[in-house]
Here is the input.
Amino acid sequence: VELAYLDHAAATPMRPEVRREVLAVLDRAPGNPSSVHRAGRMAREILEAARRRIGEVLGLPHETVYFVRGGTESDNLAILGRAARVRAEGKTPVLARSAVEHSAVRGAVDGAVREGGRAVVLPVSPDGGLDPAALAGILDEGPDLVSLIWVNHETGSILPVPRVVEACRESGVPVHVDGVQAPGRIPLDPGVLAADLLTLSAHKLGGPRSTAILVVRDPTLLSPRLFGGGQEGGNRPGTEDVAGAHGMAVALEAAAGEQPEEARRLGELRDRLENGLRGRIEGLVVHGAEGPRAPHISNVGVPGLPRDLLPRALDLEGVAVSAGSACRSGATDVSPVLAAYYGEDAARARAPLRLSLGWTTREEEIERALERIPVVVARAREAGLALEEVGR
Ligand SMILES: Cc1ncc(COP(=O)(O)O)c(C=O)c1O
Here is the structure.
């Protein structure tokens, strides 16, 4: 193979059947779904069919599915919309999140704090575990929202979301789940889908980019953050992307349908990659291997090298990987996820490589990565040694 694309957690290529169907909708349904004429009604029908299909896959009422403009917007609407609602009720919003959230959730919580609110952070252990006493303590405070990532985007760790959703339900605290990395990789657990708010994004499933949903069980939990027409129940005004919504429905059906076999296939490839790298790179650490993990992400740490060096060097070798979340590429500081799991010093002492697999991943790509990564690491280590010697 010419290129080993191992960055599916950042973006997974569009599935051919999704592409075909998106193009067909673009060609055949040019109307605005809010228009009363036939072209508008046709667009509306496609949009509502997509909503129904997504509701069916998730086992949720279709009217709880809101189309939004990407996973980031969905996370932001859940958190900032909740904060706005609480403020409209004359209170100061208190928002709890885990220590290992995606920047979309972290940033939205920080934004809500700047607008007048309070954040509470739940610690997470490297095995993905949440301390029940810490959770109970936070729930006792009666926060206005708990936001929790389901499958961590950097390590693949699966967090105990069903337990948290249940505990929140018992305490009467609304809960938001960022499930962006989960569908197609792990089973769609009804204990998670029972959350009050749920974020999923199409482009992680082989669907179009910048199309996502927020599931809203009870619209009175949120106030809108955008203002305009009354689309999506008034919570997300703006003309809907009909082709995108249709593409997301097709992608979610495909991903959910192939999940059991695909998880097995990707898990085997991931294990082969990890075992091979362990044998070939001295001191290699697999982050998050202490606990349950989704099969598509392997995050390894190479001691003694600077962060961001390896992805750049590997790019020249035809291996596409990232150092962590794509949203942090270019940043040289330590990953907040790895710092939360292992402490800042330990996280800083290892160069992280996130290798993520998906529906297009083939054995030859794993072989190429297994061959090139150790060579690049050895070269970087030799160069580092030479520099140290020069300094002496
Ligand atoms: C866990 C998680 N949440 C949210 C997002 C943001 O989604 P999007 O890229 O659709 O804005 C991502 C994607 O990087 C993610 O992995």
Notes: The CA atoms of residues 201 and 277 lie 31 Å apart. The longest strand covers residues 297-303. The mean pLDDT is 94.
